[in-house]
Amino acid sequence: MPAFRNVRAAALPAKLSRSWLLASAADEANFAPALASEADSVVFDMEDAVPAAGKIEARKRVVEALSTGMTAWVRVNGMETEYWAEDLAALSKAPGLRGVMLAMTERPEQVTHTAMRLHAGTPVVALIESAVGIENATAIASAPGTFRLAFGVGDFRRDTGASDDPMALAYARSKLVVASRVGQLPGPIDGPTVGALGDELLAACKVTASMGMTGKLCLLPEAADTINKGLSPSESEIKWAHELLDAHAAGAVVGDGSYLPRLARAEKISALADSYGLWNA
């Protein structure tokens, strides 16, 4: 494991990743700090973070990084752009590629065609950023190659005219959550709360979690740890799960019809606490 990669984060399965840090491929100096951060998953960004004139050079520096010891996800340009095919052709040869995030996903076949151009089994996160994409989310979630769904909040708002009020975005978030469940995917990844840190970011994570989303994009390395905390079981939830599971192991009797659902929730919290290393936090 290269010394610059956060060992804890590197060992966490991407289906459980809470923080997804976008590191601009406009400058290779962004890569190492991102990989050393607390972000569960790091995404080298060749799309929105890079102007058209810099796309080819950005692709070269990403492939170089992924061929010399670094491991990361990569956000590739949308299928309708002139860069998509070359992005995938270059990345298919990069040994450090963990998966791709497909920008501007609107149809299920876009994910499938993307996956087909990469090594078999390479996961694809479908970044949904438009009204068309939201309405097709169930089909996208069920498409061969789709690993998780992600919400491109900024472009969705530009497409629809919606504000950043949680109520204005509730339908889109709910659609992604239900679609993910139908497609038997991990919970979807929420969009970034640009510029937010500390309590403001924690409040945004509460919205994310309340909608049933289990990950969140971010643009700053220092945001990752806050997102990890905001999207993990709380101390009170872990304590409750611990007590219920201990009582169950000791032979507690089922009291009513809510017991088995509560037991299942406690087991889920327990599994997440183990995965995130929270029992002794």
UniProtKB/TrEMBL annotation:
Presence of the UniProt keyword Metal-binding in the record: yes
Pfam families: HpcH_HpaI
InterPro entries documented for this protein: Aldolase/citrate-lyase_domain, Citrate_lyase_beta/mcl1/mcl2, Pyrv/PenolPyrv_kinase-like_dom, Pyrv_kinase-like_dom_sf
Superkingdom, taxonomy of origin: Bacteria
SUPFAM superfamilies attached to this UniProt entry: Phosphoenolpyruvate/pyruvate domain
A molecular-function term among this protein's GO annotations: lyase activity
UniProt signal peptide: 1-25
Cofactor(s) recorded in Swiss-Prot or TrEMBL: Mg(2+)
Keyword tRNA processing belongs to the record: no
Alphabetically ordered keywords of this record: Lyase, Magnesium, Metal-binding, Signal
Domain HpcH/HpaI aldolase/citrate lyase: 22-185
PANTHER family named among the record's database cross-references: CITRATE LYASE SUBUNIT BETA, LYASE BETA SUBUNIT, PUTATIVE (AFU_ORTHOLOGUE AFUA_4G13030)-RELATED
Identification of the protein by name: CoA ester lyase
Lineage: Bacteria, Bacillati, Actinomycetota, Actinomycetes, Micrococcales
